[in-house]
Amino acid sequence: MDNNLYQYTGHDHDVASRQRDFMLRLVLAFALMVVLFALLLGRFVYLQVFKHHEYVAQANTNRISLVPTPPIRGEIIDTNGVVLASNYPAYSLEIVPGEIKGKTEDTIEALRAYVDITPGDLKRFRKFRAEYRSFENIPLKLKLQPDEAARLSAQLYRFKGVEINARTFRNYRYPELTAHFLGYIGRISDRDQKKLEEESLVSLYRGSTHIGKSGLEGFYERQLHGTPGYQEVEKDAYGHVVRVLKTVPAKTGQTLRLAMDIRLQQEADRLMNGRRGAIIALNPQTGGVLAFVSKPSFDPNLFIDGIDSDTWKALNEDWQRPLINRVTQGLYPPGSTFKPFMGMALLESGKITQTTVVPAPGAWSIPGSRHLFRDSVRRGHGSANLSKAVQVSSDTFFYRLGYELGIDKTAPYLAEFGLGSPTGIDLPNEYKGILPSREWKAKRFAKSKDPKTRQWQPSEMVSVSIGQGYNAYTPLQMAHATASLANDGVVYRPHLVKELINHERREITLISPKPERSIPFKQSNFEYVKQAMARVLQPGGTAHRIGHGLPYTMGGKTGTAQVVQIKQGARYNAAALAEQHRDHAWFISFAPVEKPQIAIAVLLENGGWGASAAPLARSLSDYYLLALKAGRAPAGAVQAAGTSAPQQENTSQTVTGAPASPPAASVFQQAYATAGNVQTASGATP
Hints:
Elements: H1 2-50, H2 52-63, E1 64-69, E2 76-77, E3 83-95, H3 104-111, H4 119-131, E4 138-141, H5 146-153, E5 162-172, H6 175-182, E6 185-187, H7 190-198, E7 210-212, H8 215-219, H9 221-225, E8 229-235, E9 241-248, E10 255-258, H10 262-272, E11 277-282, E12 289-295, H11 309-317, H12 326-329, H13 339-349, E13 358-360, E14 363-364, E15 373-374, E16 382-384, H14 386-392, H15 395-405, H16 407-415, H17 438-444, H18 451-454, H19 460-464, H20 475-486, E17 490-491, E18 497-502, E19 507-512, E20 517-518, H21 523-535, E21 555-561, E22 584-591, E23 598-604, H22 614-628, E24 653-655, H23 665-674, E25 677-682
Parallel strand pairs: 2-10, 19-25
Antiparallel strand pairs: 1-8, 2-3, 3-4, 3-5, 5-24, 6-7, 8-9, 10-18, 11-12, 11-23, 13-16, 14-15, 17-20, 18-19, 21-22, 22-23
């Protein structure tokens, strides 16, 4: 019995111990739960009270988005308001690859039931897809027909990641007629993006896809682009726009009004008649560009959304180099058109006077040398003063005097006319040309091991004196020098843009035609050389044929520039040479002589004798002075190539909502009627 009692008492002790352990664990668990709930409550209070405003702002950001609205690009018009570069609205079919379910190719194939997707569309899409990011809109078809847009819009709910967006398209109405000075726009590249970042301009291009690449489009990019706007929109959980809360409209870019009349430009283009070369015409009184033709040309519309590789290869490998802007980037020896400026150097240096007469034989040799430098006229011209030497284009006259004057005394006088320096025209990438000098040659041949190659040789001055040798200038430089000479040394900077029209502010900024400087030469010498150039068009002059029946006074100078050297004693035979090796034909002119209104430089690449370029300058001067200035030219603009409707489908920018009408020519008229502020800008730099 005692044993049983002992065993019972031990059992009760174990039960009590287990109960105490259980209660302890229960208390600890409860305490842990209290602590955890306290932590959750504390976190809740922290988020809801102390961080309330911060997270409300973030939540609103997730719900409300800012959608940038790119501006409509400014137009470019001629002096009469005729639109040369414009915008037109249209719808485009676009794909966001990151939102497509399944294969993109399957989606495109399904879209064919509603839209005509051509092989060209697919090729362009694949090119863009390699360059765009997955969440960016990639154009599949740049311009939808109205029925296509209507048909597809009703089915868009079936295609996730497919959008129809309104865009403005850039169009060049006279493509090949204006390509080399208008330039073109193109998609913003990595290089463009980097430049925008360096200049802190990224915010101005939010939503924009294109930027000016060349010509006026590139030079005046900041003025043409405008300022972007934005829409504040509310989105649902799926990212769909529920409603527009606020709209800040974009500001349209400024309109560029040129000094050029498109009718004169077309006349200059017609006169070239398919030949290679350039025509540039300036107003000597203002520096305004009246005509700007570089042939052959190209269609700038091809570049706006990325030119295809086959077309690019064809343009780039064409031996006629249509992409080269011959007016500002073509470097050519000026030939005898150089002689009036060389004559000014001879007069101003005191080497000769207006009455000095020197021999002008059929050939001349450097003293102590047996090498003959021949005149273009085998029998020579007997003897001549400077006026006669310019009129008949005597080579031996300039051989002798140029050699005796030397390069060190000659170069500074020629530099006064801007030869060998950029003119400062409002176009990018202008070449400065080559005005030979002792310093230039040392720099040019600095790597040569032969000291004689680096040093200026006196004999080199002989060919330089007649516009050959190392001389190389652009047609623009020759026109600019001619205008400065015709204007008695008053120099104006050449400029294409005459006015900047700001439609938003109702302001017009004038490109003020203020003289840059005056050439410090004697006025009597200017007048003497100008009259000598007038004699070029008179009987006995090298361009006397175009002077027949001239109803106004005109000065000019022919020039024939060698491309390949002819052996000593050999005759030039164009028929025996490849076309690319034949001489260039030059003609410079100004009219009227008394108060010049137009100065022209004509270059016919491999065109032969300079006299063959003279008729083009005469015809262009006739059209300008007798038709346009006298009001006898056909009123209105010439018809653009093809039809008046855009021929090329080109994307400029994406806009939100329905297409908006771009500024029309009427806006230009309204700007003049209501302009509240007219400002003046000196020179051509924007």
